[in-house]
Amino acid sequence: MENKKNPTLYDVAQKANVSITTVSNVLNNKNEASQKTIDRVNEAIRQLGYSRNESARTLKVGTSKLVGLIVPDNNPFFTQILTGIHEECQNHDWQVVVATSEESEKRQNEVIEMLSARQVSGIILASVTSKLYVPEKLQKVPIVLIDREVENANLPVVKANNVEGSYKATETLIQNGHRRIGIILASPGISTTLQRKEGYIQALKRYGIEVDEKLMFYGGDYTGTKTQINGGYQAVMKMIQLPEPPTAIFATNHLLMIGAVKALKEANLKIPDEISFIGFDDHPWQEITDPPFSIISQPAVEMGRQAIQALQKFKEKNIVTTTVLQLELITRNSYRSIT
Amino acid sequence: MENKKNPTLYDVAQKANVSITTVSNVLNNKNEASQKTIDRVNEAIRQLGYSRNESARTLKVGTSKLVGLIVPDNNPFFTQILTGIHEECQNHDWQVVVATSEESEKRQNEVIEMLSARQVSGIILASVTSKLYVPEKLQKVPIVLIDREVENANLPVVKANNVEGSYKATETLIQNGHRRIGIILASPGISTTLQRKEGYIQALKRYGIEVDEKLMFYGGDYTGTKTQINGGYQAVMKMIQLPEPPTAIFATNHLLMIGAVKALKEANLKIPDEISFIGFDDHPWQEITDPPFSIISQPAVEMGRQAIQALQKFKEKNIVTTTVLQLELITRNSYRSIT
């Protein structure tokens, strides 16, 4: 690919027979030149094919109109978050650099460093760790945490009310007569897992049901589509072999859910007749399964939008906000009453 | 958020008591200084918290180590492409700016312009139009087309063999005795739609079956999750009311497929007993539906990887490659023989 030389501001000024300052003023919409001059400058820009060099602008103003999004992987939940971020970024003329940490702390730090070196306007981070050690030299870049909290940082957070969502699912199963409820959780080290576990335990205790560790499973230490699907699968395979197997299962994300349902199908356990089931996350396919699945719905697109709004408040007014979005139980046809 | 002043190269040089050139050499791994000097410079960098300013570097070398990805929307197919791009970009230490054109030509051009102004190393584009009018001033940035071709540009392309994939699906249904096969296509203006239609027609002709326009449906002029799901739904609702309804349906992307299956469920038509069905695109949930769906599988992650490789060849050697990836029929249990 041939590299044509870019026409410069100087070339434009020369062609339009004005000063560089005048060209710059026209480009920045400062109405200090006559309409005739403005037209002449614009004509020169058009003829030369001049386009403003954003890197030069960045160097001058110190931020790049780029927002970084760091997610553990490209699973559909984070894609929905990206959609919300895109929607909101259009208002600011920002663009989004998407990077994955691949659920590795080392990689996450590398990515933060790379984005920081680019002088991004800010970073939206779904952290892989429950503690965040950002080297001091990187703390110049404003970070907003999304989905997952960290313990040791005073940063804006946009998250779902996971405790309440998990409580709702568990309580609904209890109210339908279930007392042996299996739960499948994601990686144990992240806040969302801890909170979903907490909501489950709170509901059991509230209804005087003993918390049985044997009914609590983790999908694995890492994310990644296959790992988590397999984690859900293995959890069910172990659960159904217990001396007192559960009558209901709650899978706390959509990948764990896919694996769990796969195992139930293989084991020939019919949902909801032989086992009740509640899943997590919203996906269109959940309506065409047989039965259609009841799920805890996450407002992922809205989380993305809110994260950009939180970033703006943080940057402009140094306000650290915590935004908690409600989770909703959508009841379709995957659990039944056994009372 | 407070904006601390960044330490400069000059600050580092002063602290290490060396020249700016020496600091620059150390930063660029030119081994012209003694180990003692190198250590002193690195110590000064550490103490000051100096981090290299990528915007300044960009200005100097003219590219930004950023790759742009422009997709019509954030649907899971494009997310899989992004995963492949991420994997390959790690080899080049590139990062990815993801932008959506929202299936609008105007927006697509705006995004190309914005990325171009950032001096991205290249753009991977899933074009919303079958013709691409890139203003001359933007042609400095190398573009690689992904998934969708355009007619009038001599650019590298990475695509799937859509004609063959669609032929396979149609032929399989024909070989199972079906002669009335409905097809649901996406937006009529894009190459993938035209090619999938072409494969369908070729298979019908090959087996001497009349091509009936009444069995060909479009999901709509635009993408977007809901629009396409609804498009698939409406297509089936019309199809099953035909005087001679189809005995098999082929839905040419996963969103059209979800809508189509939803309609079949509502109409109480059992797959595969009462109607045969083949879908498109790979998603883990297709294994847990009842029945599990037979689909044409797209190597989306691999397409992403290949696009970055094509970009590199284009940039470095000015080679315009066309990469065609095979599509595979994965047979599960959604069609049956009616002979």
Q: What is the H/E string of chain A?
A: HHHHEHEHEEEHEHEHEHEEHEE
Instruction: Please count the helical segments of chain A.
Output: 11
Oligomerization status of the protein chains: homodimer
Structural class of chain A: alpha/beta
Placed side by side, the strands forming the largest sheet of chain A appear as 2-1-3-4-5-11
Largest two-chain interface = A-B, 64 and 64 residues
Per CATH, what is the topology of the largest domain in chain A? Answer: Rossmann fold
CATH secondary-structure class of the largest domain in chain A: Alpha Beta
Could you tell me the strand content of chain A as a percent range?
15-25%
Number of domains of chain A: 3
Keywords (chains A, B): DNA-binding, Repressor, Transcription, Transcription regulation
Domain HTH lacI-type (chains A, B): 7-61
Organism (chains A, B): Paenibacillus tianmuensis
Protein name (chains A, B): Transcriptional regulator, LacI family
Protein described:
Chains A, B: Residues 7-61 form the HTH lacI-type domain. The first copy, chain A, is an alpha/beta fold and 339 residues long. Chain A folds into 3 domains: 9-52, lambda repressor-like DNA-binding domains (434 Repressor (Amino-terminal Domain)), CATH 1.10.260; 62-160 and 301-326, Rossmann fold (3-Layer(aba) Sandwich), CATH 3.40.50; 162-297, Rossmann fold. Chain A has helices spanning 9-16, 20-27, 35-48, 54-61, 76-89, 105-117, 162-175, 191-206, 225-239, 254-266, 300-317, and strands at residues 66-71, 95-100, 122-125, 143-146, 157-160, 181-185, 216-218, 248-251, 276-280, 295-297, 322-325, 328-330. Chain A has a 6-stranded parallel β-sheet, sandwiched between helices. The first copy, chain A, has a 6-stranded mixed β-sheet with strand order 7-6-8-9-10-12, with helices on both faces. The radius of gyration of chain A is 26 Å and the shape is elongated. The first copy, chain A, starts with 8 loop residues before the first helix and ends in a 9-residue tail after the last strand. Strand 2 (95-100) of chain A pairs antiparallel with strand 2 (95-100) of chain B.
